[in-house]
Amino acid sequence: MPLAERFLTHRVENQVAALCDYDAFATDAALQESVRREGGGWAEPMLADFGPVAGGELMRLGFLANENLPKLRAFDAIGQRIDEVEFHPAYHRLMQLGVEHGVPNFSWRNEQTPGAHVARAALAYLHMQPEQGHNCPLTMTHACVPALRQQPALAREWLPRVLTPHYDGRCLPAHEKPGNTIGMGMTEKQGGSDVRSNATRATPAGSPGPGEAYELVGHKFFFSAPMSDAFLVLAQAAGGISCFLLPRFLPDGTRNAIRLQRLKDKLGDRSNASAEVEFAGAVAWLIGEEGRGVATILEMVAQTRQDCLIGSAGIMRQALVQAIHYSRGRRAFGKRLVDQPLMMNVLADLAIESEAALSLAMRVARAIDAAPRDPQEAAFARVATAIGKYHVCKRCPPVVNEAQECLGGSGYIEDSILPRLYRQAPVNSIWEGSGNIQCLDLLRALRRDPATREALVAELRVVAGENRWLDAEVGWIERSLGDGSVPEAHARLLTERIALALEAVQLLRAGQGRTAELFIATRLDGQHGQCLGTLPTDAPFDALIDRAFPEP
Ligand SMILES: Cc1cc2nc3c(=O)[nH]c(=O)nc-3n(C[C@H](O)[C@H](O)[C@H](O)COP(=O)(O)OP(=O)(O)OC[C@H]3O[C@@H](n4cnc5c(N)ncnc54)[C@H](O)[C@@H]3O)c2cc1C
User: Fold this and answer.
1) Ligand 1 pocket member 267 (CB < 6 A)
2) Does CATH number 1.20.140.10 belong to domain 296-548?
3) 20 to 30 A Cα–Cα from 277, which one of 97, 452, 485, 505?
């Protein structure tokens, strides 16, 4: 017997290699259709080019970047403060691919073409599936643009470098680099949701006023992507909470007084560094008027909230395709898992949930895109972002858990992407305004601006008469909205039911009649268990699974 065979204990059979090297765009019919439906069809060639990158190189880099986590280098070898974070080359390559393909800049570079935000949402959806941590700085860089534009001189200086498709991860003054990234600092120890409690003080370095330099003394408890070239931060000036642009290096090339105290030891999002920082007289430039800081930074937060919605839809999608792929390759009790009726029900139900989340995210992207030209779309975007962020981010953890279970024990092991998706799943509902804050934001908008209620009702009625359960649900929502004065304690139930109805509307708009019918029956009409996989037995399981991820 050959030596190699003498010690052979068994042959490896019936194991499924994790899905990698696939075309994430070509295999996603729902994404392709939604891009066209919402007005971004002209960007399909760009998305088609990106599909194999998202399903290939980004997947491999994602594993590397999460095995080699960022390290804080607060001091150099001779004890001088340098306040740097060291990343593995895989992280920088992820950032480079994201920037070069346009994740933080595509919509602004193509702003004059309707649908640019839709196309960029699709790009972000693809980009966020293989690795989520590095998307935090990409999202913040994309999101800073409307806020930065409020101070034209600063915008003129910074935006050309923010919007360039060049990534430069070196720790150098921003003006010495071809491309810059931007972070955001609001949350302090005594309050995150309630940013008005910010205690960091801002004192004018010379004359006060918009565009002028101030010195900041204080801290931020959460300060993600601390290696960014500049940050939009909130601090208390004489006129109240104000928004500042805080660069890492000063114009003379010296380091700004931003002290990285420690990196957070996080549940997920681990490839991304999130720091606790202190500002020891750091110099920052005022954006807008003193006292208008919350309104100014909310221009940025509106964009990051949209990315939470897209990101959670993307995580669900990645979990779904991994589950379908595994179930096709694995056999139990004499049949492939994907041919077992109960597993088919689970996979089909996951597919419905994923498509509903994507459809809502893309509809919100269209509203954001059209907002500058269309007041009704602007009003819809204002409320639908909060509704979508609340609901889709909340659905993400149970969806990922169910997909993980489809892989059995292997879904719990780090060789697969599922454990990483599971750890990442809760974060989008926590940051950028946690669940309750989204619901309260909806109530505030409804109370302050009747146009938001009208825009919401108009959208819910787009498919009136097509499904009687949905019509009844829309009736309940309209009655609950009343004159806009909804009790706070009622906000979660109302937000959830609006989100479900909006998802059903999008599925009907998409022409997915049977999917919409199943969605409505199981989510709106109560014919559903607490867990996924409880579709009626006559549901077209095969068709739903094949549409979600066609068999090669
Ligand atoms: C991984 C990670 C990275 C982060 N990165 C950044 C960053 O880069 N920059 C930054 O500024 N922040 C960042 N954050 C902070 C994040 O945005 C905050 O944690 C979040 O906004 C909540 O603030 P908080 O932690 O102070 O909780 P709190 O504000 O104390 O809220 C705690 C809970 O109370 C609820 N709540 C608050 N007010 C009300 C109310 N009136 N009614 C009912 N419920 C209420 C909230 O919804 C939440 O569930 C990050 C957080 C995480 C986890």
Assistant:
1) no
2) yes
3) 97
DSSP 254: P
CATH level 3 topology of 174-291: Butyryl-CoA Dehydrogenase, subunit A; domain 2 (2.40.110)
Residue range 14-66, pLDDT digits in tens: 999 989 899 999 999 999 999 999 999 999 999 999 999 999 999 999 999 99
Confidence (pTM): 0.98
Q: Which residues contact 232 (CB under 8 A, 6 or more apart)?
A: 144, 147, 148, 182, 183, 184, 185, 243, 244, 245, 246, 287, 297, 300
Q: Is 279 exposed, middle or buried (0-12, 13-18, 19+ CB in 10 A)?
A: buried
Q: Which helix (H) or strand (E) holds 90?
A: helix 89-101
* Mutation probe of ligand 1 site: the residue of 69, 276, 430, 438 with most atoms within 8 A of C-beta: 430
Q: Any idea of the CA torsion for 171, 173, 175, 179, to the nearest 10 degrees?
A: 20
* Close Cβ partners of 395 (under 8 Å, ≥ 6 residues apart): 312, 316, 353, 357
Domain boundaries, the chain: 29-146, 174-291, 296-548
* Closest protein CA for atom 11 of ligand 1: 186
